Amino acid sequence: MNHLCDEMNMSNVVAYVRLSPKYKDFEAHVSEIKDAYPNVKLFTETGIKGYVPAEERPVFQSLDEQLQAGDTLVVWWISALGRDFECCNNTMRTLLAKGVHIQTINQSLSFTPDCVMTDVLMKLVQGYAEAESRYRRAAAEFGRKALRDDPEEWKAKFRGRRADKTRHQKIAALLLEGKTLQVVADEAQTSISTVKRVKAKLSEAGEVGDLRRRYKHHHVGHCQNEGNKQNENKE
What we know:
Order of helices and strands: EHEHEHEEHHHHHH
Shape: globular
Number of domains: 3
Strand content: 5-15%
């Protein structure tokens, strides 16, 4: 326990784990959590891939809505909150800003809001996130350079594809309905990155607000017309 920070509030302790086919030690990690906190309420995420941000995972969303300042969230390791350090960093900072304590089983680290030691630990997490990002960019550039040395392979890899306008329109409609990125990707049968690109284009064009108003007006008008038809049929 970090003596430079206030002790964790043990009145409300919850734990979060994500079940993954690649996660071979899942049961062992759950056992370790329950051994440390026998009466803990466990939230288990299933059927969600690791690249999905914690804020877009259904079980985590439900958990986050219940968490209040002073509560403690237990995870086996911070990787439960994100696939990479950047996602972990963002989610952890959001929880800490909310006043939630974070406790890991692995290495027994305590992240306490408004704590000097927590600030140090979070700087380390952020440093790893930035290093990870630089490494990915460097690796991508190295790959592009290798392809540029082979013009034919470069053309094959980066000739691009035409945008699927029908699918993009469906994605836009689902986004305007307020659905999460993961739900939109699942319903449109596409990737999260494609959904993000469509959302970014809508935002850059400044059309999101206007489209939402038009969608709402169309939806309300459609419902009113249907209601009028039903009344006419009754008469």
